[in-house]
Specification:
Layout: H1 2-31, H2 36-50, H3 60-65, E1 67-71, H4 79-95, H5 103-130, H6 138-143, E2 145-149, H7 162-185, H8 189-202, E3 207-220, E4 228-240, H9 248-261, E5 270-280, E6 285-294
Protein name: RDD domain-containing protein
Subcellular location: Cell membrane
Domain RDD: 2-143
Length: 303
């Protein structure tokens, strides 16, 4: 019921985001990831007000499914606590996937971001799924709140199983260890070359942010011989500031950067450049993409 209510609320907020996107698309594209603050602010006001005493602890989704937010005394919570409670819930999802191109800033933020995004995200999901006694997730545990049946005057709740708390602690500890591991991996020569390629592509005026990955895909045939084919690739996803996702010349230029800065790319089967244009404001997003595929040898000899 709780997830169902969240789904209904998500549809309502998505409708608001869709309308805003129709009116302010160019602005959202221009401000990039800062647009997430718009969706975060709208959601914060919606959930902060509706889950508080102002609306009897019920968003529109909770009203539809007859549940509400209360404290341990079975009373609805203050608006300030409701705002804080939603902030804890929303931060991991709002920060997830954010693009930071400033290398110095990344080095400062990778630990707190991993703690908030990885630790917070998985702790919230774990408790939603596994805490079947009190049904409290991370934000409920922090602020002492419960989501209960609104048609029952007073409900007794159990005590959270202590190993759940241990799992949450472990998730947050792991979230601190992950940046240590990834920073060590980044010092490996092949990763350093990929990072160098990414920086060069990010310097293009038409590109707002790019990611570069190297890998392989395996295709298994359904015929009796059951043959498998492995394709190695370098993949570039470039977010661009203009709606030119079909611009093959730009895609080729980015592919040329790959073969000229990443020595291992010449041994790959293909170089895939995906041009992406659009915006994400948290409560609504709209993207247009087109993938351009090149053979590394076709890109040799260009500067």
């Amino acid at each position: 019921m709780r997830i169902g209510a969240l789904f209904i609320d998500g549809l309502i907020l998505s409708a608001v985001g869709f309308v805003l996107g129709l009116l302010l698309e160019s602005t959202f594209i221009e401000i990039g990831d800062w647009g997430r603050l718009i969706g975060f602010s709208i959601s914060l006001v919606y959930f902060g007000v509706m889950n508080s005493v102002v609306s009897n602890g019920q968003t529109l989704g909770k009203k539809a499914l007859n549940i509400k937010v209360v404290n341990s005394s079975n009373d609805t919570i203050s608006i300030s606590k409701s705002f804080a409670r939603y902030t804890v819930l929303a931060i991991p999802f709002s920060l997830n996937g954010i693009h930071i191109t400033n290398e110095a800033l990344v080095s400062y933020l990778m630990y707190p971001f991993s703690f908030l995004i990885f630790g917070g995200f998985f702790a919230i999901i774990y408790l939603y799924v596994c805490n079947r006694v009190t049904r409290q997730s991370l934000h409920d545990l922090i602020f002492g709140t419960y989501v209960v049946n609104s048609e029952v005057d007073h409900q007794k709740v159990g005590v959270i199983w202590k190993p759940h708390l241990l799992v949450v602690v472990i998730l947050f500890v792991v979230s601190i260890i992950i940046p240590i591991y990834t920073s060590q991996q980044a010092k490996v020569e092949s990763f350093e070359d990929l990072i160098s390629t990414q920086k060069t592509i990010n310097s293009f005026s038409a590109v707002t942010y790019a990611s570069v990955t190297s890998g392989s895909s395996i295709f298994a045939s359904t015929n009796e011989d059951s043959q498998t084919t492995t394709t190695t690739y370098v993949n570039v996803q470039a977010f661009i500031s203009e709606n030119n996702v079909a611009d093959e010349a730009l895609a080729r230029n980015l592919g040329e950067v790959v073969v000229n800065t990443y020595s291992e790319s010449i041994n790959k089967d293909v170089i895939k450049v995906t041009l992406t244009y659009g915006y994400d404001i948290g409560i609504w997003s709209q993207w247009f993409s087109q993938t351009h595929t090149f053979a590394p040898t076709d890109l040799l000899g260009f500067e």
